[in-house]
Amino acid sequence: MNLYDADHIRNFYDRYAEAETQRWDKSPVEQVKQYVHRFHLDANVKAGDKVLELGAGTGIFTEQLAAITDDLTITDISPVQLALNQKRGKTLGYGEKVSQWGLADITDLKHFTDDTYDVVLCYGGPLSYVFEKKHQALAEIKRVLKPGGKALISVMNLWGTVHQYLTAIMLEVSPAENEKVMRTGNLHPSSFTPSDHHCHMFRAEELKGDLDQAGFEILSLSASNCISAMRADDLPEIKKDAEKWQYFLDLEIRACQSPGMIESGTHLIAVVQK
Length: 274
Prior knowledge:
Layout: H1 6-16, H2 19-23, H3 28-44, E1 50-53, H4 60-66, E2 71-76, H5 79-92, E3 98-103, E4 117-122, H6 134-144, E5 145-156, H7 158-165, H8 175-184, E6 186-187, E7 199-200, H9 204-213, E8 217-223, H10 235-239, H11 242-257, E9 267-273
Parallel strand pairs: 1-2, 1-4, 2-3, 4-5
Antiparallel strand pairs: 5-9, 6-7, 8-9
């Protein structure tokens, strides 16, 4: 059975619109996730890099990329998301760093030539939406990278989602229905989903196996959040003290990369090299 439905994902994010911007900043827990993603971006993108951003959404990370390098190609499967990214670029001034905005499906990058980009950024979970076409998407990402180029990829994580949303979502659904999701990692009508958000949640070993199969060298693997996941009530108070907040964020970065904590966050972040 083919689970990937490009039209469904496109329509979902067309409707989602500016909520894509808001989701990264709606609470201190989400702000920590954004910080961890940005940490790995800053560590791996340098001035002069030619960058392709896939599933760029409204531009949360496009803005950061533009502060580092001035050769960006920005894509999304949703025309609404792409238009909002362009609008944001004009408003915030990063648009001059973008050579092209274009619609693209990560499973088919035929408009982009081989060995072109120093970095491919695929943040926020685009690979989680393509289900059985994940290998095709990874092959396309590798193809367009220059030899030695890096890809930064984040995917939704099964155990981290259970960790953060156990009481809010999972325990509101019967164990039998939850087990359908746990067996497959899929939020999809073929297993079970109470929502219109169809995606695949990876286990760490699954992601590592997929990246190995694609021929990538895994440079680092991190959770998107860890210590912060169950401390939503504590974070606002910590954040009032800039020194404590920065120390907390530093702890979070270290914890997220600890082998025992890789699956503690709602996303897995992988940095890989061709």
